[in-house]
Design a protein that fits this description.
Elements (H helix, E strand, L loop, with lengths): L1 H5 L1 H4 L13 H13 L4 E4 L2 E5 L10 H7 L11 H15 L3 E7 L5 H15 L4 H21 E2 L7 E2 L2 E8 L5 E9 L4 H4 L9 H9 L2 H7 L9 H4 L11 H15 L3 H11 L2 H5 L4 H10 L9 H11 L3 H9 E6 L2 E6 L2 H31 L11 E7 L11 H32 L12 H8 L5 H10 L6 H12 L5 E3 L5 H5 L5 E6 L2 E6 L3 H6 L4 H8 L4 H6 L3 H4 L7 H17 L2 E8 L12 H10 L2 H10 L3 E4 H8 L14 H11 L7 E3 L3 E4 L2 H45 L10 H18 L17 H22 L2 H17 L6 H4 L16 H7 L4 E10 L6 E9 L2 E6 L2 E7 L3 E7 L5 E6 L10 E4 L3 H11 L6 E4 L2 E7 L2 E10 L3 E4 L5 E6 L5
Parallel strand pairs: 2-14, 3-10, 3-14, 22-25, 27-29
Antiparallel strand pairs: 1-2, 4-5, 6-7, 6-10, 8-9, 11-12, 12-13, 15-17, 16-17, 18-19, 18-24, 19-20, 20-21, 22-23, 23-24, 26-27, 28-29
Helix pairs in contact: 5-6, 6-7, 7-9, 7-12, 7-18, 9-12, 15-18, 19-20, 19-28, 21-22, 31-32, 33-34, 36-39
Bound molecules: adenosine-5'-diphosphate and magnesium ion (MG).
The site of magnesium ion (MG) has 4 residues, from helix 6.
Length: about 1000
């Protein structure tokens, strides 16, 4: 509905509760008219659907339309019969409550079409299984069959239903339709024998003679000419342009098969139903016989073939039937006598029999369909939920109104009563549920009229029954007099005699007038008694009970003959069946469809105001609206309301985290709602006047509009901007190496952005991964910083995972790297080799040495070669490192102890040799001078020395020679050269000459 509000100026309101002037009938009709002109035939009054017959096919019943309404909130989409169907279905599923859809409206207003649309909706949208498919088919196919036998062309409607229909559709727990059941009400049997000018008998008669194959007609003894049969031409219009009897026959024939009639059954059934032809075949036995009797002519029936066909059909004995149709059995002084009938009496006996047969076989047909639709799964039938569909004759007013109209209008009076009770009740219940005070609503309660018709002893039906049953000369007129005597003072009852002068002018003397809720109707009492008695002479009944026709034996039971109890009159039967119907409907949650016909000419696009006003009045739509509007025009669940309007208040936009009711309260206060304009219930907000809601809706529209304007503006700008962007791009490229300036800023930003995104995707994953995308010039520095950061991060992450041993190893390697990397030729070879804790353990060192060390802890020991200071003789020694000194050991002797404090530095060559010199301070006379040593693990050994002695910065790497002190101020020199192999020897110049192989090219 909310979406509808926006379009309200163009096509009125989609819900009458939003009509500002809700008491104005003019405004109401104008709204209907406006919408009708736009082919918007549906409008709501709250949850009631008002439908105006378009008399043309609208493209609003496609499968896509069905899908649109499926599972969607009633108010989210425009009004539609599918919305009502879906809503009922969902309520049934979610609330586990049986539903009913009550369709009302006058003849031709579209009730039957609406009920078919509902069925089709369920057939298409509900889940299905294989079994369900046949049920769906049968449900759908029951319509053409019932219409063929129960519908007829009337002045009002070419396909007027002449019976009331209530159909239950049963759904299983999965929501699939699994069965159905039909109740039929008061078939207009009089149509079988009489039709007003311009009307027809039931469709099936015409369908059969137009559509049946020759062979079938021959077997039935029928001719293709409708004119041959009096019962079919009383209204002088056996052919109707809008009806194709021939193709309809095919449809009906097929539908009968779907429902489960065997071919044989179809034939018998159609025979039985249409036996009536025979009665009235011009020249048939009965007609002539009756006439002849009148003239005491004894001419015999000439057309014996017709007679034979008829009798074989009814399955009764010829002479017995003849006797029964022309005589009446009377009982006088305890004796049974056969009294002959005059022509009129004989005709009426014939008509009574025809009506009885048609009426009873129609009921038989409904039962047969019910058997076919029955939900077979007894076990689960208790779990089935039900949606009932009521398509019943609407309020009817003709020039001459008879017993049928009296029954029909009484039925509508009852439905209106139910409608009032249920709508008021549900309205009141909703207020209670929401904790809102109920204010009494003024409305006309038509119970007074229902009572006038149906009250025991005092009501019109009781009086009619009394006249029908009492001995003596009861007649339609005595009935009228009795009415005057009994209910003459009733406010809703008038007769010619009781009326004032003005009313008298428009009333016949044989009429009584009822002031129905929907309007005044004059009923002519002629025929009331007969129609109410609906008598079939006992002898005719007897004949029918003896019939051998399979269907008739089921329709006329022998028990009827022996039953001494008087059969119920038609009106009483009808009254009782209506009471049952009300009970059924009361037990379900109702939805309403109120149908209106826009003109009497069945024309598309014509909206006759007078006619529509009349229907609006007698459908009680204005009252319906008044009840609905009595308290609050609009109500909506908090979440729905908040969702729609939250953007109108800064506190609720974009979301409200608190209680829904507080959110709604904040919102409406912000919108300036006055306290009397709304109430907050338990789950819903109630808004009293439509204008309040319209204002809110307008505010929403405005907001949407301003948003749209903004969007539009930026869209317009967008097009110009695309051109500008291209230019900017070219400029940016040209100026890319310039410092940031307006010409290149977009380009640079873009390039930066792309680089950063690329980097983001390609960051190195491990410390050893040295890959890094090349940065654009503008980002070189940042890239470098980022790279370091990244590496630090990786290292940090890596460090967190390493063991203490490994950490120690790495620390030494870092020192080695700092000291030797790129400086000494054999450094790279040392990198992959792990440094060991010591090269000599306890067993390799003389115990005396260990003893001499005492508590001094040895940190590293390695075999070395010592070159004598004089002569440079090579001697095998051990170098031990403790916490405080480096010690040179020969076997068991500590040959030289160099305190780290006395260690000036360490010299080593840049080549691949293992020679090194430990320089010591000379002031100390005890010192023997610098030590010239060689280690096979020189990198490792010197790294240990550097760490133990804390001399990392005192390791000198020399290119070609090392000077060292021999003691007492004398110097020695070691010369280094590259060669093919390692050679250490005293040179002629007295220097120590070392040749080392080149391992790594620099
Ligand atoms: N929704 C509709 N769309 C198109 N035509 C419709 C619609 N409803 C009714 N009609 C037309 O009006 C005719 C009478 O409708 P019907 O349902 O038989 O009336 P009712 O059952 O109320 O007497 C239909 O035969 C059809 O031609
Ligand atoms: Mg109908």
């Amino acid at each position: 509905m909310e979406s509808a509000l926006t379009a309200r100026d163009r096509v009125g309101v989609q819900d009458f509760v939003l009509l500002e002037n809700h008491t104005s009938e003019v405004a109401f009709i104008e709204n209907l008219r406006k919408r009708f002109k736009e082919n918007l035939i549906y409008t709501y009054i709250g949850s009631v659907l008002v439908s105006v017959n378009p008399y043309k096919d609208l493209e609003i019943y496609t499968k896509q339309h069905m899908e649109r309404y499926r599972g969607v909130n009633f108010y989210e989409v425009s009004p539609h019969i599918y919305a009502v169907s879906d809503n009922a279905y969902r309520s049934m599923r979610s609330e586990k409550r049986d539903q009913c859809i009550l369709i009302s409206g006058e003849s031709g207003a579209g009730k039957t079409e609406a009920s078919k649309k509902v069925l089709q909706y369920y057939a298409v949208t509900c889940p299905a299984s294989e079994h369900v498919q046949t049920v769906k088919d049968r449900l759908l196919q029951s319509n053409p069959v019932l219409e063929a036998f129960g519908n007829a062309k009337t002045l009002r409607n070419d396909n007027s239903s002449r019976f009331g229909k209530y159909m239950d559709v049963q759904f299983d727990f999965k929501g699939a339709p699994v069965g159905g059941h039909i109740l039929n009400y008061l078939l207009e049997k009089s149509r079988v024998v009489h039709q007003s000018h311009g009307e027809r008998n039931f469709h099936i008669f015409y369908q059969l003679i137009e559509g049946a194959e020759d062979e079938l007609l021959r077997r039935l003894g029928l001719e293709r000419m409708a004119q041959q049969y009096q019962y079919l031409v009383k209204g002088s219009c056996p052919k109707v342009s809008s009806i194709n009897d021939r193709s309809d026959w095919k449809v009906v024939r097929k539908a009968l098969s779907v429902i489960g009639f065997s071919d044989d059954e179809v034939e018998v059934h159609v025979h039985t139903h249409t036996h009536i032809y025979r009665h009235t075949h011009k020249g048939s036995y009965i007609e002539r016989n009756s006439v002849l009797k009148m003239h005491t002519n004894t001419q015999r029936c000439s057309d014996s073939s017709i007679l034979v066909g008829w009798l074989s059909l009814l399955g009764v004995d010829f002479s017995v039937l003849k006797e029964a149709l022309t005589h009446k059995k009377i009982t006088a002084k305890g004796e049974e006598l056969m009294s002959p009938l005059n022509q009129e009496q004989a005709s009426s006996a014939r008509d009574a029999l025809s009506k009885a047969i048609y009426g009873r076989t129609f009921t038989w047909l409904v039962n047969k369909i019910n058997t076919s639709l029955a939900f077979k799964d007894k076990f689960n039938s208790k779990n089935a939920s039900v949606i009932g569909l009521l398509d019943i004759y609407g309020f009817e007013v003709f020039q001459n109104n008879s017993f049928e109209q009296f029954c029909i209008n009484y039925c509508n009076e009852k439905l209106q009563q139910l409608f009032i009770e249920l709508t008021l009740k549900s309205e009141q219940e909703e207020y209670e549920a929401e904790g809102i005070t109920w204010e009494p609503v003024q409305y006309f309660n038509n119970k007074i009229i229902c009572d006038l018709v149906e009250e025991k002893f005092k009501g019109i039906i009781s009086i009619l029954d009394e006249e029908c049953l009492r001995p003596g000369d009861a007649s339609d007129i005595t009935f009228l007099v009795k009415l005057e005597d009994t209910v003459g003072g009733h406010a809703h009852f008038v007769t010619h005699k009781l009326a004032d002068g003005k009313t008298r002018k428009v009333m016949g003397r044989e009429e009584f007038r009822l002031l129905h809720y929907a309007g005044e109707v004059n009923y002519n009492v002629n025929g009331f008694l007969d129609k109410n008695n609906d008598l079939l002479f006992r002898n005719l009944k007897e004949v029918m009970c003896s019939s051998e026709n399979r269907i008739l034996t089921q329709c006329f039971s022998r028990e009827e003959l022996t039953d001494k109890k008087l059969p119920e009159t038609t009106a009483t039967q009808f009254k009782n069946s209506l009471a049952k119907l009300m009970e059924i409907l009361m037990s379900k949650d109702p939805s309403y469809v109120r149908c209106i016909k826009p003109n009497d000419a069945k024309q598309a696009g014509r909206f006759e105001e007078v006619l529509v006003r009349h229907q609006v009045k007698y459908l009680g739509l204005m009252e319906n609206l008044r009840v609905r509007r009595a308290g609050f025009a609009y109500r909506r669940r908090y979440e729905v309301f908040l969702q729609r309007y939250k953007s109108l208040c800064p506190d609720t936009w974009p979301s409200w985290d608190g209680r829904l009711v507080d959110g709604v309260s904040t919102l409406v206060k912000h919108l300036g709602y006055k306290p009397e304009e709304y109430k907050l219930g338990r789950t819903k907000i109630f808004i009293r006047f439509p204008k309040t809601l319209f204002a809110t809706e307008e505010a929403l529209e405005e907001r949407k509009h301003s948003l749209a304007t903004k969007l539009q503006a930026s869209w317009k700008g967008y097009n110009q901007k695309t051109k500008y962007r291209k230019l900017r791009w070219v400029l940016g490229f040209m100026f890319r190496h310039h410092p940031r300036c307006p010409e290149n800023e977009y380009f640079l930003d873009y390039v930066r952005y792309t680089f950063l995104m690329k980097l983001h995707r390609a960051l190195p994953k491990t410390v050893l991964d040295k890959s890094w995308p090349t940065p654009p010039p503008a980002l070189t520095e940042a890239s470098e910083l980022l790279r370091k950061l990244c590496m630090q991060n990786l290292v940090w992450k890596y460090c967190k995972t390493i063991s203490p041993e490994w950490k120690h190893q790495l620390e030494q390697k870092v020192v080695a790297s700092e000291v030797f990397k790129d400086k000494k030729d054999n450094y790279p070879q040392s990198v992959p080799k792990l440094f060991v804790g010591t090269r000599l353990d306890g067993d390799d060192i003389n115990p005396k040495v260990l003893q001499a060390l005492g508590t001094e802890k040895m940190k590293y020991a390695v075999p070395v070669t010592k070159y004598d200071r004089k002569g440079f003789k090579a001697r095998a020694r051990q170098l031990l490192l403790t916490a405080s000194s480096a010690i040179i050991v020969e076997e068991a002797k500590l040959k030289q102890r160099i305190d780290y404090s006395a260690l000036k530095g360490v010299s080593v060559s840049s080549l691949s040799d293992g020679l090194f010199v430990l320089h010591v301070t000379c002031e100390d006379n005890k010192q023997k001078g610098d030590a010239v040593l060689q280690s096979d693990h020189v990198i490792e050994t010197l790294t240990k020395v550097a760490i133990c002695a804390d001399k990392i910065n005192n390791i000198n790497i020399n290119q070609s020679s090392i000077k060292f002190t021999l003691g007492q101020g004398k110097e020695g020199i070691i010369d280094f050269t590259s060669g093919s192999e390692l050679l250490v020897a005293k040179a002629k110049n007295g220097h120590l000459s070392v040749t080392a192989p080149r391992l790594n090219s620099r």
